[in-house]
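Tokens as discussed.
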């Protein structure tokens, strides 16, 4: 055994190393909502895993409860085309449910409330990270981070602070906009998508990839959790106050 160098971990086997998850894995999810709605759910085709399909006791997916989507929806997001052995985690609803994909029966993709975590190299066993995310120590850290104890805002002139809300594409959501931020004033112009930010998806994304239909236009805006992607764009907004 050897000292891990981290007080709360203590000693670890001599052949183990201590690594940071953020440098050794990728986290992928459906970009914004991509306009995917329950009206598109069908009885056949690629599986769509939602947060309600997690068997939290066994750490598996309940395939019998999964719905299906079209081949086009599956092909639209190659970064979340699921494979056996993938580690999944929920980010909406009950946050933090985890499962490892096994016994996959057909092509499978994810809805916007589920993300897939994959090692960037063979630096750790997926099963090990699964147990870390279920551990008491992880949830102590998670709850501490989300308690607000470590949150420090910059000068207020550098950011807009929006009120939290539970809806993202109705008038109640748009009422949380700020005059001049080009959300409430331009919502649905030219039939572009208009999804407001929420606690789970706190970043505005503007525009999108040319083939994304209603997500393409310059007046499109939608919510996202802050990751980067080659087909993301932005639009500068100037807010002027008297």
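Sequence:
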């Amino acid at each position: 055994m050897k000292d891990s160098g981290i007080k709360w971990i203590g000693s670890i086997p001599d052949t183990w190393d201590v690594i940071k998850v953020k440098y050794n894995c990728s986290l992928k999810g459906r970009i914004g909502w991509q306009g995917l709605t329950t009206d598109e759910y069908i009885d056949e085709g690629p599986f769509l895993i939602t947060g309600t399909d997690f068997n939290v006791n066994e750490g598996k997916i309940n395939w019998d409860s999964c719905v299906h989507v079209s081949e086009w929806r599956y092909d639209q997001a190659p970064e979340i085309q699921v494979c056996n052995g993938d580690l999944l985690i929920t980010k909406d609803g009950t946050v933090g449910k985890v499962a490892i994909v096994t016994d996959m029966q057909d092509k499978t993709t994810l809805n916007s409330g589920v993300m897939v975590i994959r090692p960037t190299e063979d630096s750790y066993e997926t099963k090990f990270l699964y147990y870390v995310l279920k551990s008491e120590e992880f949830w102590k850290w998670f709850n501490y981070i989300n308690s607000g104890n470590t949150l420090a805002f910059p000068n207020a002139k550098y950011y807009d602070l929006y009120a939290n809300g539970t809806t993202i594409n109705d008038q109640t959501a748009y009422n949380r906009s700020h005059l001049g931020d080009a959300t409430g004033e331009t919502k649905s112009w030219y039939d572009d998508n208009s999804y407001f930010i929420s606690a789970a998806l706190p970043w505005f994304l503007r525009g999108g990839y040319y083939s994304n239909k209603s997500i393409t236009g310059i007046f499109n805006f939608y919510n996202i959790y802050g990751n980067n992607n080659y087909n993301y764009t932005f639009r500068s907004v100037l807010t002027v106050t008297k």
